[in-house]
Write a structure and sequence with these properties.
Layout lengths: L6 E6 L2 H12 L2 E5 L4 E4 L7 E6 L12 E3 L5 H11 L2 E2 L14 E5 L5 E5 L5
Parallel strand pairs: 1-4, 5-8
Antiparallel strand pairs: 2-3, 3-4, 6-7, 7-8
Organism: Pseudonocardia alni (Amycolata alni)
Protein name: Glyoxalase-like domain-containing protein
Length: 123
């Protein structure tokens, strides 16, 4: 029996705030606005989605899992938009090449969860 990827669960100090941030960043739809389970999807009924659940503690170390995002347009423009929304730049020392050779930019959401904005797909 094959499995279907339903969602990624994200621990959050403030699930509603963080879920709304990701909904705006991804231009996704809020499908459940509960403070105990704030869920977003690309469109209602389209999976996988993200669900944000409350936890008492804040993030302490680098993520063990992160999301890679590939923009439709230019990476730098999308990075600038995400920074204006409240993302921050992160240096996780995951690539030692010169900056102009790195094909992604590492950012963090408002609660410090790292994610990457990728450059154009190489052929």
């Amino acid at each position: 029996m094959p499995l279907q990827w339903e969602q990624v669960v994200v621990d959050a100090r403030d699930p509603v705030r963080l879920g709304r941030w990701w909904a705006e960043a991804l231009d996704w739809t809020v499908v459940n606005a509960s403070a105990s389970e704030f869920e977003i999807q690309p469109a209602e009924g389209v999976v996988p989605g993200l669900i944000f659940v409350p936890v008492a503690e804040g993030k302490r170390t680098k993520n063990r899992l992160h999301i890679d995002l590939r923009p439709d347009g230019v990476r730098d423009s999308e990075v600038a938009r995400l920074l204006m929304l409240g993302a921050t730049r992160v240096n996780v020392s995951q690539h030692r090449a010169p900056a102009d050779e790195v094909s992604w930019t590492v950012l963090a959401d408002p609660e410090g969860n790292e994610f990457c904005v990728l450059g154009e797909r190489r052929t």
